[in-house]
Amino acid sequence: MSASRSGAPVKDRRPTRRGTASKPAHKVKRFSTTDKVVLTLMVVGPLALEAVLIWFPTILSVGLSFTRWNGLGDLSTIESAGWANYDYVFTDYPPFWPAVVHNVIWLVFLGAIATPLGILFAVLLDKKIRFSRIYQSIFFLPVMLSLALIGIIWQLIYSGDNGLINSALGINGTHHAINFFGDKSINLWAALIAQTWRHAGYVMILYLAGLKGIDPTLKEAAALDGASFWQTFRQVVFPAMKPINTIVIVITIIEALRAFDLVYIINGGTNGLELLSALVVQNLLGEGQDLGVGSAIAVVLLIVSLVPIVFYLVKTFRKDAES
C-alpha cells in the first residue's frame, strides 16, 4: 500500500515480475460439512473393513492357537492348551517338517528358475523385437488367471489318461503313462513347473517396466567404454533397477509361503505336496478338524511371512528418510 497526494491510502499497483498487477491473496477454503463426512467415510470405511477382514481374524487365530477346540461344540467347550499346540506341531505332527521343506524348495525354485526366466523374457522383449506386444500378452496371460484355474489347466496337461504330455509321448492310457500327480517323487516338481508358468510372467512385467525406465545414456556410456551386453546388464542396468529387485524378492518369498490353490486343486496338499498353507486348511476345515493346531500353524506362517514384509518396509522407510 502507498499514499496518494491527498494522503489517502491507495492500492499498490506496482507491476509484478510478470508485468501484471498483484492480485489479492485468496482466502483458504475450509472444508464444508459434506466434505468432512465424505473424507471421514473414505478413511473409516477401509479401516473398518481391514479390521474386520484382516486384523480380527488374525487376533482370533493367535488366541485359538492356545486352545483345544474342534469347532463343533459351543464356545463353552473351548479349553486352554497353553503352548501344547505349538509343541505338538514342532515335535509330533508328521506333515509339518516335510511341509517346511517343500516351502523352502518352492522358494528356491521360484528364486533360481522362475524369476531369472521372467528377467530373460523382459530383456528379450525390451529389444523391440517383432510382435513384442503379442509375446507380452502371451507371457502375461497366466498372471490374470487364478492359481485354481491354473491347477485345472495343468491337470489336463499332466493327466495320465488323455493328458497332453502323455499323448505327445504316445503312452496315454497305458501302464507306461507318467503319473505326474500320483508319483510322490515328481508331483512337487510338476506343480512347480505350473507355478513357474505364472510367476515368470509376473516377474517379466515388473522388469519390463523397470527396463523402460532406465536412462539410455547409461547403456550408451557403457558401450563406449567397451562393455559387452552382459557386462552392461550385470553392472549397470540390473543395479539401476534396485527398487524392482527388492519388490520381486519380496513377491517371490510371499508367493512361496502362500502357495495353496495349486496344490489343493492337484491332490489336496497330500502325497508329497504338503505345504504349510495346505496344512492350515486341512486342520481348520478337513476331516481331522483341530482349530488349535491349525491356528498354531497359521501363526507360524504369519511370523515367517512378516520377515520379508518388515525387511521391505524398513528399506523403504530408510530410503525415504535419506532422501
List its salient traits.
mainly alpha, MetI-like fold, two-stranded antiparallel ribbon, 4 strands, 65% helix, 2% strand, disordered N terminus
Structure description:
With 323 residues, the chain is mostly helical. The protein has a domain at 98-265: MetI-like (MetI-like fold), CATH 1.10.3720. The protein is built from 13 helices and four strands. The protein has helices at 33-64, 84-91, 96-125, 132-140, 147-158, 164-169, 187-212, 216-224, 229-240, 242-258, 261-267, 276-285, 291-322; strands at 2-3, 9-10, 67-68, 79-80. The strands form two sheets. Strands 1-2 form a two-stranded antiparallel sheet. A two-stranded antiparallel ribbon has the order 3-4. It is globular. The protein starts with a strand and ends with a helix. Belongs to the binding-protein-dependent transport system permease family. InterPro entries: MetI-like, MetI-like_sf, UgpAE/MalFG_permease.
